User: Fold this.
Amino acid sequence: MHAGAFDQSAAALRSDVLVFATPPLDHELEVAGPITVRLWIASDAPDTDFTAKLIDVYPPNADFPHGFAMNLTEGLLRVRYRDSSERPALMVPGEVYAITIELFPIANLFCRGHRLRLDISSSPPPGSGRSRRIAQAGRRHEPAFPSTGDRLPAAAISPISTSTPILARRKASGSSRASPATASSPKAPAPRTSCCRSFRQVGEQPA
Assistant:
């Protein structure tokens, strides 16, 4: 594995990745702090993983004629630990569950014309352990990996919301003041704080 930022453009073309993105920003947006992603999911397996990755999408420019999708932070949840890390609970296949993925904190200035992109997928080895999607995972003698793997088409994802800490700049004093806000999809439950940006699944038509 290599640390650092790498172009994530190719990931948007994968069939096992769901891609959500905002429209191009009409003003600078500064984000600093932890990122939380909440998903409503269902799976055909008793256990699986979900990952979330936040990306800063650069428009085409002199340095990057085709644009650049820079990974900023990501997080992973093994669904059996959705409620507690000490008391795992398997899923009932087909039943809908709410899960929360905690991403590593960031401090990033999204420039005007950039887009925020959120990729949802399953476990990304070798960065994390591969999900076996079976109830026996974690025992000493584990069965072999399922040949089908863990694909998002087998897991239904509905309303998605993302909580991001937005820094509101005060130009007069030159200082910044932390102002929490929530970016959510149009179908997500109403957030408790003000909505700052709408994520829409890439390829989805506006309502």
Summary: The longest strand covers residues 155-170. Residues 9-135+150-201 form a domain with the Jelly Rolls fold (CATH 2.60.120.260). The chain has one domain: 9-135+150-201. The two ends are 41 Å apart (CA to CA).
